[in-house]
What does this fold into?
Amino acid sequence: MKIENCVALVTGANRGIGEQFARELVERGASRVYAGARDAGAVSVPGVEAVALDITDPASVAAAASLARDVTLLVNNAGVARAQNLVVGDLGKIRDEVETNLFGTLSMIRAFAPILGRNGGGAVVNVLSAASWFTYPGSGSYAVSKAAAWSMTTGVRMELAHQGTQVVGAHVGWSTPTCPPHSTSRSSIRPSSCGSRSTAWRRARSRSWPMT
It folds into this structure.
């Protein structure tokens, strides 16, 4: 799929990696970029159309799908990192992580799959993590949610093949943080809200995003 002249929607586009994806899409010639965020007013990327979007809220997802009927590229970037210990951590926070990173992403795909099909197939990019493949101390719950999202990505790829929709995962590794000043330790940096333009985009493009 070519990015030039595509119509893209990026979730979690108000900061970090999502913001940089939105910027790159504009710079690389997308004809329209919808930038989704819970607070649409927090989106500051020039040339995008800000959309109020909470991927864990079915009504919000449906509203976004009703608005952005011309989408040909869906970038599922929105997510959370609660970093809970699986054995003694807060089970509510673990559920929230899975609800957002797995079911929120899946809800977006379910809402936009028919739109992509009607628009010629298009593509879905799920922003995952190298933590989809391994777990290190303090990352247990996050790794579980991203591993589940990776498995979901594989299943969706097979299910949408008939309509010509490309489905890929961007397994982003460690990236230079662009987080608030209080984020001083590795464990305090959230992959969904941090990352440099050069590192995050380069890895997604070269390793897991086979598009031109």
Summary: The mean pLDDT is 85. The first strand starts at residue 7 and ends at 10.
